[in-house]
């Protein structure tokens, strides 16, 4: 199968590594330095201290023409409006399939604008770190949950059937419930670790940080109307434990002076709180602190 991956961040490169094992993968990126490195040196991947390197077909984003069977959109949420507009302009009339891998909920309305046979959304629960433009570290083995926004999942089943045991896929019936489950994790872990400047596990290990963890979870789950709060809390804690030594993507963005996805995460929570006339003091405080650091 021919697969396009748009985005050369940690998640894009991680998907490129695993899918390139059994499919013809092309990565489309904007950064010319990264592009030249990938073309010259290939993609280096590290898992559990063991490194491997393989050639990877890399192209500039503007070279994408929609010729692949599946196009995976692996850019940050804030890049989605521009990317989707460009895709609509560059597509040569082919009605392909797309998989969106963003945090938050804002990409749904943009995804639905694309003319496509199939539109999928995914929730990535792997830990990944891009240490160099041509190197990705698989820091935590998890799963990718996927659901169909439009069409059926037959195409993704073919990918799942041939996927590495280190890169499994799980199929969800309800895409909203799937994304909300990931949203709660992002709302609690990402802003707290970014503001406190700690690894994920510290949120559970430090009793004072844990109090903030619980209060923020209670606030967010209430605003989202989560029916099974106990189950949701168990899930967030388990993700925190499994990725205990990891630095969240938002913390890394702050440390490296990049824009964060706070608008797609706590920004969404604040919008929902306003609609429902609910107070959100913890979410508002963290949101303002992150925006201030940006």
Automatic annotation (TrEMBL):
Residues 176-293 form the Ketopantoate reductase C-terminal domain. Signal peptide: none annotated. Pathway: Cofactor biosynthesis; (R)-pantothenate biosynthesis; (R)-pantoate from 3-methyl-2-oxobutanoate: step 2/2. It catalyses: (R)-pantoate + NADP(+) = 2-dehydropantoate + NADPH + H(+). The keyword Oxidoreductase applies. It comes from the Bacteria. GO terms for biological process: pantothenate biosynthetic process. Keywords: NADP, Oxidoreductase, Pantothenate biosynthesis. Pfam families: ApbA, ApbA_C. InterPro entries: 6-PGluconate_DH-like_C_sf, 6PGD_dom2, ApbA, Ketopantoate_reductase, KPA_reductase, KPR_N, NAD(P)-bd_dom_sf. Residues 3-150 form the Ketopantoate reductase N-terminal domain. One of its GO terms (molecular function) is 2-dehydropantoate 2-reductase activity. The keyword NADP applies. One of its GO terms (cellular component) is cytoplasm. Its EC number is 1.1.1.169. Belongs to the ketopantoate reductase family. Catalyzes the NADPH-dependent reduction of ketopantoate into pantoic acid. This is 2-dehydropantoate 2-reductase.
């Amino acid at each position: 199968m021919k697969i396009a991956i748009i985005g050369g961040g940690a998640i894009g490169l991680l998907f490129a590594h695993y899918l390139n094992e059994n499919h013809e993968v092309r990565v489309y990126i904007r950064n010319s330095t990264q592009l030249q490195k990938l073309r010259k040196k290939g993609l280096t991947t590290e898992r559990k201290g063991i490194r491997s390197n393989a050639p990877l077909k890399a192209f500039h984003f503007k070279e994408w023409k929609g010729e692949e069977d599946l196009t995976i959109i692996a850019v940050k949420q804030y890049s989605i409006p521009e990317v989707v507009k460009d895709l609509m302009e560059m597509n040569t009339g082919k009605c392909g399939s797309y998989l969106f891998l963003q945090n938050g909920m804002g990409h749904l309305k943009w995804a639905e604008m694309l003319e496509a046979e199939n539109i999928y959304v995914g929730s990535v629960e792997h830990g990944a770190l891009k240490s160099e433009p041509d190197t990705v570290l698989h820091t935590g083995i998890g799963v990718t949950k996927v659901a169909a926004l439009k069409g059926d999942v037959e195409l993704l089943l073919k990918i799942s059937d041939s996927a590495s045991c280190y890169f499994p896929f799980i199929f969800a019936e309800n895409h909203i419930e799937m994304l909300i489950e990931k949203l709660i994790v992002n709302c609690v872990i990402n802003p707290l670790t970014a503001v406190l400047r700690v690894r994920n596990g510290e949120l559970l290990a430090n009793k004072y940080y844990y109090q903030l963890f619980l209060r923020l979870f209670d606030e967010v789950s209430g605003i989202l109307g989560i029916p099974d709060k106990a189950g949701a809390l168990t899930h967030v804690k388990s993700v925190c434990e499994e990725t205990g030594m990891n630095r969240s993507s938002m913390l890394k963005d702050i440390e490296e002076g990049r824009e964060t996805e706070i608008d797609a995460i706590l920004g969404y929570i604040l919008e929902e709180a306003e609609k429902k006339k609910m107070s959100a003091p913890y979410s508002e405080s963290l949101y303002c602190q992150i925006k201030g650091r940006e």
